[in-house]
Every structure is written in structure tokens, then in C-alpha cells.
Amino acid sequence: MTEIFLNYYQYFLRGTQTTVIVSLITVLLGTVLGCLIALLRLSRFRLCSGFAKLYITVIRGTPLLVQLYIVYYQLHFIPWPEGSILGVELARVMPCILALSMNSTAYVAEVIRSGIQAVDFGQTEAALSCGMTRTQAMVNIILPQAVKNILPALGNEFVTMIKETSIIQYLGVGDLMYNNGIVVTATYNPLPCYYISAIIYLTLNIVLGKGLDLFERRMKCSDR
């Protein structure tokens, strides 16, 4: 296993770089859009809440791989930008990021909704009594408290997304598993390659988990 890694480490590093970039962009987009869908879900307007509920139901009720293929083939007419960033081909990776972000949005929306509803309603009433609008109360009072409550769940979504990006290999995107397949083909020795990939995924998630724990502790210290 060590010999394979030393001889083909550039493939694993290149794939890891793509995996991290795609995961980071996906989680950022999913968090922003998830916040929007969560607010629509809590809206007093039935049309808005109905749309958000339908979106969440459809996305959570269908496999991610199916969503990836639907986005890729349905939006084939879009002139995706050419070129690459940090070795990632934009024309291939943009549909993947879109599909993964749509999937992440549905799960993040439910996490954020639960965090908002966990904040005592008295906080909203106090903000309104001070002259704030509902929008100001949500942005300045409710959401900051909700974020602290849902931070572990958002971190879990990032961890999950790092692993789920492995499906983009089916569209020819050079992520970790795609490059793992190249090494397997070159060496005819699949098991050590999968061990190496598993260790890389595990290392990424451990580092991410430690970073999130540190960030959460600092937020708790700021409360004191």
C-alpha cells in the first residue's frame, strides 16, 4: 500500500483537492439556499411554505445519484464556462455542484428550521416590543441564536457532503474516487487503493471535526 501511494500520490492529492473544493462550494451554497428555503418554509404565506415543503419532500425522497443525472442531462443546453480552476474542469463540475447544492439545501433547510423553532418565541416578542420589524428580529436576534444551536448539525452536513461527492466520478469529474480508479487500473491491485482513499476521507473528516469543535468552543466562550 505504501509503495502504491508513493508511486501514485499525485493522483490521490489531485483527487483530494477536487473533493475538498467541490464539498466546500456545495456546503456554502447549500447553507445560503437552505436558509432561504427554511424561511420560506416558516412563512405565513401558504404559497411560499407550500413550495418549500414540496421542494424538501422531492429532494429528500429521491436518490442523490438520480438527481445528479437529471441535472446533468436536463441542463445540457446551458453553456457552462470553459477552463479550469485549481485543476477542476468547470464544464464538468458545475452541474455536479448544482445537483449537490440542491440536495444539501433540502437537508440544511430542515436543520435551520428546527434551530429557528428551538429559539424561544419570547425572543421575537421582545424584539418586536423594542420596535424591530419581524425581518430585523429574525436577522439580528433569532438567526444568530439558531446558528449556535445547529452548528453541530451543519458540521455533520459538511462531513456527509465530503463523502457524497464520490458520486461525481460517474460524470468524469476527477475527484478522489475517480483518480482512485485510475490508480486501480494502472496497478491491477484495487484493495490497497481503496484503503488509501478511505484513510484520506477519514483524515479530512477528522480535521474538519476538530476545526468545528474548536469553532464551537470559541462561540461558547463568547457567550460567557
UniProtKB/TrEMBL annotation:
Localization annotation: Cell membrane
GO cellular component: a single term: ATP-binding cassette (ABC) transporter complex
GO terms, molecular function: transmembrane transporter activity
Boundaries of every ABC transmembrane type-1 domain copy: 16-212
Keyword Transmembrane assigned: yes
Membrane topology recorded in Swiss-Prot or TrEMBL: Multi-pass membrane protein
GO biological process: amino acid transport
Cited Pfam families: BPD_transp_1
Keywords, in A-Z order: Amino-acid transport, Cell membrane, Membrane, Transmembrane, Transmembrane helix, Transport
Family under the similarity heading: Belongs to the binding-protein-dependent transport system permease family. HisMQ subfamily.
Protein's recorded name: Amino acid ABC transporter permease
